[in-house]
Amino acid sequence: MRILITAAGSRGDVVPYTGLGVRLLAAGHEVALATHDAYADAVRAAGLEHRALPADPRRAAPVPTGAGPEKARGQHALMARAAAFLEELGGGLADAVAPGADLLLLSTTTAPLGWQLSEATGVPSLGAYLQPTHPTREFPPVMGGARALGRWGNRLAGAVSLKVVDRLYAGPVRALRTRLGLPPAALSALRAREEAADRPVLHGFSPVLVPRPGDWRPGLEVTGNWWPYAAPDDRLSPALADFLAAGPPPVFIGFGSMAAGEGERLGELTVRALRRAGVRGILQAGWAGLAPGEQADGILAIGDAPHTLLFPGTAAVVHHCGAGTTAAGLRAGVPTVPVPVTADQPFWAARLTALGAATAPLPLASLTGPSAVDRLAAAIRTAVHDTGMRERARAAAVRMAAEDGAGRVARAVERIAEGGPARPVTG
Predict the structure, then answer these.
(1) Which residue spans within 281-426 are E strands per DSSP?
(2) Are 108 and 83 contacting, i.e. CB atoms less than 8 angstroms apart?
(3) Residue 55's pLDDT is what?
(4) Which residue ranges of the chain lie beneath pLDDT 50?
(5) Alpha helix locations (H) across 223-362?
């Protein structure tokens, strides 16, 4: 079977699909991954075909929002940037499907556009999401913050959240349907059609963090994580390996695709917090350009490094709580200091804290003013020295190690290849 995986966004939104693709390759399928050129090397290193998507993920990244009128302007600018990103993405997805496929695996970001491609081409699709987007009574919507609203409030807020998503995609979907020669249709109606058909959606996160909600419809499954592909001979750089061996386990600090343009401020803040906490540190540049700002003993600045190899050698991890970094920290069995910024990050931060494997979240927007260094240093000390927190993180890692998320997707795909339904995927 020719399988086309579509994924868009930051690195954490894309690289989990490289490991999933390798598992599907091993099952005998032909696998292509349509994503941005920035990740082409990672796709090809996994042995997958890369099909280019034109949109620049940095263009849809959050912008500083401030407060009051400045916050409103920032949110309006973000929505405009996101809509432009999605419209360009839709055209790119149409081009990526053109060479042919027998099955589309659609990520959270690409699914509303991918439904149009499936309708136009007759190629069946399967949802492959990294976030739980369907409404439930058991937790609030992932894009709506972390505050629980009660069982009915959670479900209502989830439904409202989907309406916001539908408005964001309305223009890009309209443009894509016109290009494909499809009749006009509201995305809300298309979504209702998908739900009425109980179309399967497989979720690549661990039930350790988010058990499958009991009120989800049939076809919505939680498989366990899909881990980024790692070559058997992957190693940490000599400088990083030497630093880890040269002293006590350090604390990792990185904000991934967040906080662009704030590297200097955050570099100074994090170095002072590490020193005040009395620990060594590793600062990962990310899109923020995080760096110490000066030569500092006991602190190493790095670029890209595989979290799978790095995190087990750390005492704790401080990060923005994107879905992928959240899973990587928990997989390593180390405590987290959550510093969420936006989107689904407050949700994952709250899940880690509720699990007892993380300190209370310190939203990035709150790390300002004269007390910011003390608050971050205190959270780091707690994460490093709280033995109960470490034991809970290790227990979660043991449970996650028994999961086979990619294998469950492969079995679902095999059922489709044999002409059957994708579900159930248990066993």
Answers:
(1) 281-284, 299-302, 316-319, 336-338
(2) no
(3) 75
(4) 62-72, 74, 425-427
(5) 238-245, 263-277, 307-310, 323-331, 345-355
Distance CA 259, CA 256 (A): 8
Determine if the peptide bond prior to 184 is cis (ω within 30°).
no
pTM: 0.92
Assigned token pair, 372: 């910011």
* CA–CA separation, 185 and 182 (whole Å): 8
pLDDT per position as a tens digit, 54-71: 877 765 554 444 444 444
What Rg do the C-alpha atoms of the chain give, in angstroms? 21
CB 31 within 8 A of CB 21: yes
Helix (H), strand (E) at residue 103: strand 103-106
* 123 token code pair: 């190629």
What is the rounded CA–CA span in Å between residue 103 and residue 27?
15
Domains annotated for the chain, with CATH where assigned, are 2-225+403-417 (3.40.50.2000), 238-401 (3.40.50.2000)
Structure tokens at 75: 């949110």
Residues in the chain: 427
Distance CA 111, CA 109 (A): 6
Residue 343: exposure state from Cβ atoms within 10 A (0-12, 13-18, ≥19): buried
Rounded to the nearest 5 percent, the helix, strand and coil shares of the chain are 50, 10, 40
Query: Quick check: 107 and 120 in contact, CB under 8 A?
Result: no
Looking only at Cα atoms, what is the longest distance across the chain?
64
- pLDDT value of residue 147: 78
CA angle at 8 for the pair 182 and 59, rounded to the nearest 5°: 100
- The values of phi and psi at residue 323, to 5°, are -55, -45
Q: How large a percentage of the chain has pLDDT more than 90?
A: 79
